[in-house]
Write a structure and sequence with these properties.
alpha+beta, Deoxyribonuclease I, Chain A, 6-stranded mixed sheet, 7 helices, 26% helix, 27% strand
Length: 400
């Protein structure tokens, strides 16, 4: 049996000091040192074999954090692990206290294709750290080889020459990082993503300094609602691109894990697109797609075939699998405006589902590191820009 851990870590704007990432936002050397210190401690506590990072502006800044984590791991081991002269050194507790540095780990960085290095207009990318290395070269998905046109059909009663329009996607707001990780005698395909946020997208008229909807002194509720609609459509389209890559991997026979900042909860449409649809309880109750009469329903054999086809490519929330074994749901990775929710997700293919008799592994535990989170809108809990505004999640896995 091979045991390993996999984690997702939105670090919140990691960049080197004195570099303006968003307009008027940068870290002083002292602030950067504090953030690096906090991240190194958090990474040390996670002690995960595979870590997906979001909001990484520069690879060098992340490597500095990893180097500091390694130094702390070595110092911790030196202080807590007995040397060979101690007869009790082989006791199990010392194996549990040991922390493995990332000295020999592989790091893949996916810069944002929209990041041109302009101060105040930077765009974050992703990274993935693996103690097991990678099989093959990591892949970055952001600029689509062909524009993705998502057509809409006219509503009933408006057939004919009526134009319903379409949504065109040429580039994802942030890259998707795809790696294959050799674990034990298996190779697992791991996706790391950061979907479009809920922040509204507003169009700036030609020659204007800003979009009209951004001027809150002339509050435009309808225009801002349209901005939210644009963001939601983009997020769902990005989820569909990711879904296509997931299904390719499963169809090729590869177990899949998908992690990252989905910017939506487990039951949001975008998350459901990534996971795949839930099969209907009994398709023998349902009218056939080509029904010619009221009793033209799918057969029992077709029900089994349809359910199997859906389940084979479906993903499952690691959080939900943990909660169903737990006495109480205390999981959240985000807090704002009094709303506590999980927008950082880890989804697993059927290869790891406890109800699958042919599974290759099991999730034995699931942790959320969220003690640093405060509700940023609460006057008594001011927003801390140096720590992350996300909780970190880590799943403990055991391959059979």
């Amino acid at each position: 049996m091979t045991e390993f851990t996999i984690a997702s870590f939105n670090v919140k704007n990691l960049i080197e000091p004195d570099k303006e990432y968003y307009e008027f936002q940068q870290y002083t050397p002292e602030e950067h040192a504090w953030k690096e210190d906090w991240m190194a401690n958090q990474l040390l506590t996670l002690d995960a074999d595979i870590v997906g990072f979001q909001e990484i502006f520069e690879e060098e800044a992340l490597r500095s954090v990893i180097d500091e984590t390694n130094r702390r791991a070595e110092a911790l081991n030196a202080a807590t692990l007995p040397d060979k002269s101690k007869s009790y050194r082989r006791k199990v507790i010392f194996r549990k206290l040991a922390v493995e540095p990332y000295t020999d780990a592989a790091l893949a960085f996916a810069p944002n294709a929209a990041d041109e290095g302009v101060p105040g207009q930077r765009r974050p990318g992703l990274a993935l750290l693996s103690r097991f290395g990678f099989e093959g070269a990591p892949e970055m998905i952001q600029d689509l080889p062909q524009p993705l046109d998502i057509p809409f059909q006219p509503l009933r009663g408006m057939e004919g020459d009526q134009e319903a329009g379409f949504y065109r996607l040429r580039r994802l707001s942030r890259p998707i990082l795809k790696v294959r990780v050799p674990v034990g005698n298996r190779v697992i395909t791991v996706f790391n993503c950061h979907l479009k946020s809920k922040l509204g997208e507003y169009l700036k008229p030609k020659g204007a300094e800003y979009a009209p909807e951004e001027d809150l002194t002339r509050y435009d509720p309808v225009g801002r609602a349209l901005g939210s609609l644009r963001a939601a459509v983009r997020r769902m389209a990005e989820a569909w691109v990711l879904r296509g890559e997931i299904v390719k991997e499963i169809n090729a026979g590869h177990p899949v894990m998908v992690m990252g900042d989905f910017n939506d909860g487990e039951h949001a449409v975008s998350s459901e697109i990534i996971a795949g649809e839930t099969p209907f309880k009994n398709y023998a109750w349902m009218l056939r797609h080509d029904a010619k009469a009221a009793n033209d329903r799918y057969s029992a054999e077709e029900h089994r075939q349809i359910t199997g086809d859906i389940e084979r490519v479906r993903l499952h929330s690691a959080e939900k699998l943990f909660v169903r074994k737990s006495l109480r749901d205390m999981v959240y990775t985000s807090a704002f405006g009094g709303v506590y929710e999980s927008i950082d997700q880890l989804f697993l293919s059927r290869h790891f589902h406890p109800d699958n008799p042919d599974r290759i592994g099991d999730m034995t535990y699931f942790s959320v590191f969220n003690d640093h989170l405060t509700d940023g809108s609460h006057p008594e809990a001011p927003y801390n820009k140096l720590a992350s505004d996300h909780g970190q999640i880590v799943a403990h896995m055991a391959l059979r």
